[in-house]
């Protein structure tokens, strides 16, 4: 096959080895794992190159700087390859895939994140299957967006969430259908794929270190103790609220803090802490004041996508009222247009 895929190996379980302190990545080891997979040299596989990151990381250590390195690695090789596979730890893969979906504007090639729950050095590893299918999907040029391939399903990166620490099906896309299913064939759900943006040239937007917070509400929460978080120099706070965006209303401590935060110029964004569904402010009286305070509803965005989108919007240097509008607007297929 004359297609070419670039594999970016950033770390994660897929290439880890057991150590005294638990699984950890090992420099220079992954190529030897790939050398053992004969299928990677079959005629109907695309050509591929491996780029190993330094340092290799557990994805718990992946954040803004690493997103920029991944973006840079793709951008500098963009014209050389038909697609990219990003090997990444599963723990924060949904955040990184969301981040890259915003950073890679005008993307018209597949960028497929994958990894595994069991390292490739183990006999029952799910890594080989995930890797082989990801390389094929990256070479096919059909899902030209940032996605995650895992356990037979291709899902949009900014719709994904890690829902199991144990199952081989580690990711789900609660509010959006899979982009493809892998059985005997790779079957794409063409109606679900992102449409190309024909007028937009491919551009990498780098992320900046933006002070944001995520606050998950729970019954009986002492909001007064969280006040410093809400009123300090925070650019934005994502409230993970109950149900369709509801917050306690009989105790006014939270809404008072939110008003102060808004006066201080912080943006308040509201996600639902439900696994699936939509945060829609004003549905219940308990979210009415939140709506009046100017909080933005993240609708059916995952918290991971909302975090990534806020980093992106504050990094691209636009004015705060525009950020607010853009947060509630679908930019990369991360939210359903209601
Ligand atoms: N802790 C690992 C990581 O995220 C888990 C994994 O890769 O599955 O890097």
Report on this model:
- This protein is 28% helix and 22% strand.
- Strand 2 (16-17) and strand 3 (24-25) form a beta hairpin.
- The strands form five sheets. An eight-stranded mixed β-sheet has the order 4-1-5-7-8-9-12-13, with helices on both faces.
- The chain is built from nine helices and 18 strands.
- The chain has helices at 30-35, 64-76, 93-103, 127-140, 223-231, 253-263, 285-292, 303-315, 320-327; strands at 4-11, 16-17, 24-25, 47-57, 83-87, 104-105, 111-114, 146-150, 153-156, 161-162, 171-172, 180-182, 186-188, 203-204, 212-216, 236-241, 267-272, 296-297.
- By secondary structure, the chain is α/β, with parallel strands linked by helices.
- Bound molecules: aspartic acid.
- Residues 11-13, 58-60, 89-91, 115, 117 line the site of aspartic acid (ASP).
Reading off the top of the CATH hierarchy, the class of the largest domain is best stated as: Alpha Beta
- Low-pLDDT segments: none
Outline type: globular
CATH topology term of the largest domain? Rossmann fold
Strand order of the largest sheet: 4-1-5-7-8-9-12-13
Q: What is the structural class?
A: alpha/beta
Largest sheet: 8 strands, mixed
The end-to-end span amounts to: 43 Å
Q: What is the domain total for the residues?
A: 2
- How many DSSP H or I helices? 9
Mean pLDDT equals 94
């Amino acid at each position: 096959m004359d297609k070419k895929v670039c594999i970016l190996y950033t770390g994660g379980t897929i290439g880890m080895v057991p150590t005294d302190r638990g699984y950890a990545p090992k420099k220079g080891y992954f190529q030897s794992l790939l050398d053992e997979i004969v299928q990677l040299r079959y005629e109907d596989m695309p050509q591929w190159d491996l780029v190993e990151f330094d340092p290799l990381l557990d994805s718990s250590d992946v954040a803004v700087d690493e997103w920029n390195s991944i973006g840079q690695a793709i951008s500098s090789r963009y014209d050389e390859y038909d697609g990219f596979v990003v090997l990444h730890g599963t723990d924060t893969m949904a955040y990184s895939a969301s981040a890259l979906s915003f950073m890679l504007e005008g993307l018209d090639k597949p960028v497929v994140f994958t990894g595994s729950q069991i390292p490739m050095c183990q006999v029952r590893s799910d890594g080989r299957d995930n890797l082989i299918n990801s390389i094929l999907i990256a070479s096919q040029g059909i899902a030209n967006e940032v996605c995650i391939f895992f356990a037979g399903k291709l899902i949009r990166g900014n719709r994904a969430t890690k829902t199991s620490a144990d199952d081989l099906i580690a990711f789900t896309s609660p509010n959006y259908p899979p982009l493809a299913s892998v059985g005997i064939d790779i079957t794409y759900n063409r109606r679900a794929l992102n449409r190309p943006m024909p007028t937009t040239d491919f551009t990498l937007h780098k992320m900046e270190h933006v002070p944001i917070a995520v606050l998950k509400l729970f019954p009986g929460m002492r909001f007064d103790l969280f006040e410093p978080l809400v009123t300090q120099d925070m650019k934005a706070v994502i409230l993970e609220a109950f149900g369709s965006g509801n917050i306690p209303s009989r105790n006014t401590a939270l809404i008072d803090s939110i008003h102060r935060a808004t006066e201080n110029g912080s943006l308040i964004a509201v996600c639902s802490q439900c696994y699936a569904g939509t945060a829609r402010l004003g549905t219940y009286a308990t979210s009415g004041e939140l709506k009046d305070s100017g909080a933005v509803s993240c609708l059916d965005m995952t918290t991971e996508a909302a975090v990534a989108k806020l980093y992106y919007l504050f990094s691209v240097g636009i004015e705060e009222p525009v950020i607010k509008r853009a947060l509630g607007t679908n930019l990369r297929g991360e939210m359903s247009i209601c």
